[in-house]
Write a structure and sequence with these properties.
Elements: E1 22-28, E2 33-34, E3 38-40, E4 46-48, E5 55-56, E6 58-64, E7 67-72, E8 79-89, E9 92-105
Antiparallel strand pairs: 1-2, 1-5, 1-8, 3-4, 6-7, 8-9
Length: about 110
């Protein structure tokens, strides 16, 4: 992963390391892929976060300024995945920026 120097807090440029990402399994639908990062509560509240069953662990190693080598802790099965990071402004999801890097793993 490569991260340029940061600038504006609250936008995608404020993401500066792999530790700000989660690695999630995506559900492969007929014409798209998806995962939930928020749920609306019955009485109007919101709950944010990742489903632990769809989250994979990974480690990172800084190889030079702004560049990191990322290694998944366990082998990924064939399927669709995404590194997802969300920035928030003043602790709120309003005006949040979601950064997604998606990829697939082919079966052998």
């Amino acid at each position: 992963m490569y991260f340029p120097a940061t600038s504006n807090i609250g936008d995608e440029r404020s993401i500066s390391s792999p530790e700000q990402f989660s690695l999630l399994t995506l559900e492969d639908k007929k014409d798209h892929r998806e995962t939930a990062i928020a749920k609306k509560a019955m009485f109007g509240g919101m709950s944010y976060g990742n489903d632990a069953k769809k989250t994979s662990l990974f480690s990172s190693e800084r190889i030079r300024s702004y560049a990191y080598k990322v290694t998944v802790s366990a082998g990924l099965k064939a399927g669709e995945y995404a590194f997802i990071a969300t920035t928030t402004v003043a602790g709120s999801a309003q005006g949040a920026t979601v950064v997604i890097y998606d990829f697939g793993v082919d079966g052998r």
